[in-house]
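Researcher: Re-running this chain for the archive, since the previous output was lost when a drive failed. Same request as before.
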Amino acid sequence: MSLYQIKQGIKACPLCDILYDEQPHVIIVYPEEERIVCHCIAASRLKNLLELPDMNSLYDPLTGALRKEHAQMETEKNLRNFVQFSIPFCVIFIDLDHFKAVNDTYGHLIGDQVLSEISQRIKNTLREEDSLIRYGGEEFIAILQHASLPVGLKVAERIIGSVNALPITVEDKKITMSVSIGITTPERSDTGSSLIERADTALYKAKRNGRNRIEYL
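Model: Regenerated structure tokens:
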């Protein structure tokens, strides 16, 4: 039987396509239920697929928030939209109060579970288009798109209320937590770094003024 006859008889077999094509290919063969599936991918396309970002690398595995390196990118992206189209946004810096005491008292494994639960509570207060970034050990940045200062302040109040609402239950322990929040809005002279720094300064003002509160700069 000739290769041409094989190709006529088994039109779906990608191996025959390769025999009639000079472009390099990769064949992927795997079992699926009671049949063998054969996929043919051009080598050039495979290279592009392999260069796609790994979704797991975007997110912090403990909290599910974006990794720290996305803070600058997300801030600068929203800043460009603000400068060009006057689209408002807010940067919210969040820090867990007395989190070191949790690790010291209960251990880091329980501390990690507390951190994961706090992250989930924060995410539940945000909209789908907003971004939550784990910036440090117990520090988070929330970037609220299309949000004026009054909107940002309401979201910050919801975050504090969500964290304070119920103790966090881990094993047989009930742990009460609070967060301090610094919030800022952009100016046309800002950079991504200056916005994050100003929100951080507002956060430390909240810490100095008694914690479990919001400060704006």
